[in-house]
Amino acid sequence: MPPAIEIRDLRKSYGDVQALSGVDLDVPEGSFFGLLGPNGAGKTTFINVLVGLVRKSGGTARVFGHDVEDDYREARDKIGLAPQEFNVDRFFPIREVLEHKAGYHGVPKSEARERADEVLKRVGIYDKRDTRFDWLSGGMKRRFMLARALITEPDLLILDEPTAGVDVQLRHELWETITDLNDHGTTILLTTHYIEEAERLCDEVAILDSGRVVDVASPDELMDRGTDRITVSLRD
Ligand code: ATP
Hints:
The chain is an alpha/beta fold. The chain is built from nine helices and ten strands. A hairpin with a 2-residue loop joins β4 and β5. The termini are far apart. The relative contact order is 0.18. The model has no long low-confidence stretch (mean pLDDT 91). The structure holds adenosine-5'-triphosphate. Adenosine-5'-triphosphate binds at residues 14, 17, 19, 37, 39-45. This is ABC transporter ATP-binding protein. Residues 5-235 form the ABC transporter domain.
């Protein structure tokens, strides 16, 4: 069985800037995996390569055995992404946005509404189904980003700072939802700036610094080893 994510010598440059300079990483299927690192470490670039938003400069990246560029469709169909940015169609009711996305991914119309309702209930904003994205509160927007990532029933859920800027209560609610998904078999890759979040949720954490993986360990091991690595991850 191939790992959920298999990365070898992955490189990405933007002109003179080396965002990723030889990343090797395996994320086992079913794991809850954290990616930590300071601003500019390369976390978003790493994710963008996985989902086909940027082209790598070298190396290989596979998702459940599918090369993210050569087998783009197969790899992409396995992934649900909740990006940091709210890149959402703002003018339609959120249920319609979800139905549309499901349709785009080949879900028959008759099933699309049912699926949209199911994910809206799952993240706790079903009562807002007829509201447009613009009119949701910041916390509800974060919940919606998760719902949108789930609409394709992904095997790998990628969450780029999913709780950035949300209050403590919502953060805990989101943690519960995400943990439940992982308990039911979804592999999760999470980037975060909150060490508490990594400790609470992740089985394993990779520390990315200046485009390289400088450590992979359980959150407890990182704590036991001292705070150097953690400090690197939080150096903003
Ligand atoms: P943050 O925690 O702030 O989101 P990050 O770890 O996600 O940071 P990236 O956004 O991947 O880091 O950026 C890695 C490096 O690549 C940075 O030096 C950044 O300035 C640079 N970079 C990212 N995108 C581009 C781009 N489109 N063009 C040029 N440079 C870029």
